[in-house]
Each structure stands twice: as C-alpha cells, then as structure tokens.
Amino acid sequence: MTAAHPIIYKIAGAAEWRAAEAAGSFRGAAVDLADGYIHFSTAEQVAETAAKHFAGRDDLVLVAVDTGRLDPAPVWEPSRGGALFPHLYAALDLAAVAWVKPLPLGPDGRHVFPPLGDAGAAR
Q: Which first-to-last residue range defines the signal peptide (predicted)?
C-alpha cells in the first residue's frame, strides 16, 4: 500500500459486522443506507467520529479498509467543518478489509483505538 491508497476506517456494531461477514459484503449501517453511501473516516477523523456518533456504545468494531483494493474507489466529499471524508457508493467488498478489531470504551468513557495506519494484525 502507498500513500496514494490510504487506509480508511468504518465504525460498525459488532453484530452488524458479523452479519456482513456472513453475507460476504457490507452494505452499510442504517445511516449509510439512508444516505446512499457508506461513511468512512481517516485515521485523523475517526476518534471524533466515534465521539460524535457512537458515544457510550461498547458493542463496536473498527474496520480498516485498504482504499487500493476498493472498486469503485471512495469519493472524498466535504462534511464536518468542510473536511473531506471518504464515502463509498457501493457495497464494501470484504476483500478490501485489512483488519477488524474491537473498539472498547475506556474508563473515561471514550473509545480506545488500536494503532492506526498500516500497522495492525490481519483479520
């Protein structure tokens, strides 16, 4: 993977993700289906996404996706504060998933993230 193909992240409910693995693809959470695309975040954005949209939830996983393996490629569109966020206008092919890890809550009530970027064990 190169900088031209960054890793992007999806926060999903653990049960929702297990269902996607059983189905062989991820079509998105309810908000994704309503918006017509799957919402992703970059490594720099994902903690704020968790705090804003998933506060207090302890049933989550963090899914790392290699954008170089996505077809079609994600579309980078402005969202919070004008920052560009990756959106996927298709089902997520699980072959593009680099890893999936639990996203637990820490003692302070914030989500505890694994190392982000290229690091991390395979699924």
A: none
